[in-house]
Specification:
The protein is mainly alpha-helical. Helices cover about 70% and strands about 0% of the residues.
Length: about 400
């Protein structure tokens, strides 16, 4: 594939590339997104075309806005509650609008900037470590085991293939892993009669959230989501953007603002609540994405799926092997956990980051608890060192 580059002459723009590496990086977050989207849509009985089209549009707009592999993901805490409790779509849309308003308030008042200054880098690393641990555990426990012995063999081959090709720009690992999954699907699971029955043009349907749904959604879904969003979607995403693209000078206010805009728009057109996320950026980057082109390609995949197969997307996506998605998800989690390496030289910060990660990944409201505990421990550590020096 030829390297097609769209250059911009504006000072703050970066080029968009659509080459084989961006194509490979495009699917670096599919292991997280696809199961959550399908699960939420089925549990809340949402319109498949609306969900997929809006998710694709948010990806494309984000890729154009940031011109880097800035991900768009379903809100994970909300998704978990919706799937577990079968929350209806109206309450989900109300929750999306509610969290959009909250994040816009944090942005416009500058509270998001103050939060970024209060939370030390080692605590943010702990949040990333905790999320990576969660993703890796989910990949191994739920996805890799999904198809029994055949699934283990498929996952092992995909894992070895990824290890062999990771970082190879000429032969990107993700393309071969996804191709392996498609080959398995076509041979063992694909049914052309079922697929053709699902074909049909679809468009987003308009929905106006009611006040009662907004209030219910805020307390049931938005409140549990806010700590994770502040920790991972904003602070940790800004940190990993600084790690991978230090020249871009991305701010928490920029991330928070686009986060809020997505959720002020999605509920009116049947889209699931969405956020940015450090795990998604790590996944896109790990498999080759370096510009917004990877996110735009990824968004186009969902947009086309929604336009032409929206009514039966759960049937179509359900045939893709979960062990393959598990391998992609595992490498996304490992990429996040490896960010701890810049704390290895610090005997005080590394244990705090690990503790924050363990709290975040294992407790209810773990991200909020982890952040609070981490800030307190950093403060006590700094105070102890100051007292020692003053003696």
């Amino acid at each position: 594939m030829k390297n097609a580059t769209l250059s911009s002459h504006t000072k703050n723009s970066a080029p968009l590339r659509f080459n084989r590496n961006e194509l490979a990086g495009a699917f670096g977050d599919v292991g997280t997104d696809l199961p959550l989207i399908v699960g939420v849509a089925l549990a809340a009985k949402l319109d498949g075309a609306s969900v997929l089209i809006m998710f694709g549009v948010m990806q494309i707009l984000t890729g154009l806005r940031y011109r880097m592999p800035m991900p768009v993901q379903p809100l994970k805490a909300m998704a978990a509650i919706v799937i577990a409790q079968k929350v209806n779509g109206s309450v989900l849309y109300g929750a999306g609008l509610a969290i959009g308003v909250v994040m816009l308030f944090f942005t416009l008042t500058g509270l998001i900037d103050k939060l970024a200054r209060w939370v030390p880098k080692c605590v943010v690393r702990g949040i990333q470590f905790g999320l990576g641990l969660q993703l890796a555990t989910l990949a191994v426990k739920d996805y890799v085991r999904a198809d029994g012995l055949v699934g283990y063999g498929l996952a092992l081959f995909a894992f070895a293939l990824t290890i062999f090709l990771i970082g190879n720009k000429k032969y990107p690992a993700a393309l071969f892993v996804i191709a392996l999954g498609l080959l398995y699907t076509f041979i063992f699971k694909w049914n052309w009669a079922t697929v053709t029955q699902q074909f049909g043009l679809g468009f987003p349907s308009f929905h106006a959230p009611h006040w009662n749904d907004i209030v219910s959604g805020f307390f049931l879904l938005a409140l549990p989501q806010i700590p994770l969003s502040l920790g991972n979607s904003v602070l940790a995403t800004r940190q990993i953007a600084e790690d991978l693209f230090p020249e871009r000078k991305l701010t928490v206010r920029q991330i928070s603002f686009t986060y809020s805009l997505m959720n002020l728009l999605n509920p009116f057109f049947g889209g699931v609540p969405t956020c940015h996320g450090s795990g998604g950026m790590a996944g896109h980057y790990a498999f080759g994405g370096r510009t917004g082109g990877s996110v735009i390609i990824y968004g186009a995949f969902y947009l086309l799926l929604g336009l032409f197969f929206g009514k039966g997307f759960d049937t179509i996506t359900g045939v893709f092997p979960l062990p393959i998605l598990g391998v992609v998800l595992l490498f996304e989690g490992l990429a996040l956990m490896l960010l701890l390496r810049d704390l290895f030289a610090s005997s005080s910060e590394l244990p705090i980051a690990v503790l924050v990660g363990l709290l975040a990944s294992s407790l209810p409201y773990g991200y909020l608890i982890g952040v609070i505990v981490g800030i307190i421990l950093v403060y006590l550590s700094q105070r102890g060192r100051a007292n020692f020096v003053s003696r």
